[in-house]
Amino acid sequence: MRRRRSRLPVVDAAAAVPHLAKTGGAIVNVSSTLARKPAAGFAGFADYAASKAALEQLTRCWALELAAKGVRVNAVAAGPVETAFLRERMGLSEEAAAAVEAGERAAIPLGRRGEPDDVAAWIVALAAPSAAWVTGQVLGVDGGFSLVRWSRSPRPGHVVRPRPRRTVAEGRIDLMKIVVIGGSGLIGSKVVSRLRAAAHEVVAASPSTGVNALTGEGLSEALAGAQVVVDLTNSPSFEPQAVLDFFRTSGRNLAAAERAAGVGHHVALSIVGTERTPDNGYFRAKVAQEETIKGTGVPYTIVRATQFMEFLGAIADASLSDGVVRLPTGQFQPIAAEDVAAFVAEAALAAPRNGTFDVAGPERASFDAFVGRYLAATGDRRPVVADPAARYFGWTVEELSLVPLGEARLGRIGFDEWFQSRPRG
Ligand SMILES: NC(=O)c1ccc[n+]([C@@H]2O[C@H](COP(=O)([O-])OP(=O)(O)OC[C@H]3O[C@@H](n4cnc5c(N)ncnc54)[C@H](OP(=O)(O)O)[C@@H]3O)[C@@H](O)[C@H]2O)c1
What is the value of pTM for the model shown? Predict the structure, then answer.
């Protein structure tokens, strides 16, 4: 296998060199950060890494051999890129691939996996005439991945099993069984990936996996042996009475199942400022959810987040009237879902606070300015009008209704970075 991988570029180059010598062309090999970063845990990994290391040395040797013919040879060593490689080429299950991706995102200094364009741009640059005096070089295009240590990744199909609890006092990680209710949702799926990447046993529970917090179905089986439950559910209906019933009933069902299973920590996600907008039926339901949690006797932590950046488009659409996006002028400080997931995962691994804490995005601006920035970035030409009387999904927003008033922890991902790294299509 290794021979075949290193041989293909040789065959390609041999065929191309006569033409490149005539045209003054260049060869750009595509290597990988993994050529120089040892890791284990995947079948075939050693062959892959060794063949990429060979390709980098071929790049340098060919650069010397072909310089006399005017042919330049360089390579790009790409870091993890958003492609189907883990699933289709390495054959990882969805679960295993997601865990690897989450671990990579957490390790990459620039905070995201690359897009194919990030790498393609440098391949084109090395082939271009402007690089006429560059040869024999391997350029790392990897968000800084090559600079950091990277822990061993989970094996394909590896199932994390309950392990004996080891205490932090022993100087080791405390591995736990953690049940994420709503584990298939926007925040839930990211929290599941983060906790699995940290090697905890994580159950992603939701109606689609037979666990229903509203009816109680499947709860006792899912919670058996769990130390922590993270509630990231959302109501399928936002009609005020339905959402109130959803959060009250599911909160009570979860508490009963947690008490029966001896769960020691309940973590939930609420919203900054819920108590400050009493005409908002959804916010009233979140207040009821928080009150239910506080009254159950199960130790808890409530993370209260500002609006997710992922909903900027939906906010613009909901604020459209007569072709104009009409928005309130109050302050707005949205946070990326990835940052929310990081705070929730951190809370799940910490001791219960029996209290709440606020998290928000790193940038604050008026509502209209933020949504206008999003629309401009997407090339959406719908005019944005700032109107102090405009409503947010039909609700009044005062100047400070939706932003933290006191101390808050701020996410790392600003709007520009979020916009660049958001999934497209
Ligand atoms: N939107 C915001 O800006 C914002 C800000 C701060 C906090 N929050 C809070 O963040 C939380 C998560 O929001 P999200 O956007 O990540 O939610 P989401 O993507 O809509 O996901 C909702 C999850 O709840 C599950 N679910 C629905 N009914 C259930 C039931 N009866 N029993 C168990 N699970 C059930 C769904 O499972 P299926 O996939 O199987 O249907 C899904 O996994 C919500 O509580 C929300 O209030 C939102």
Answer: 0.66
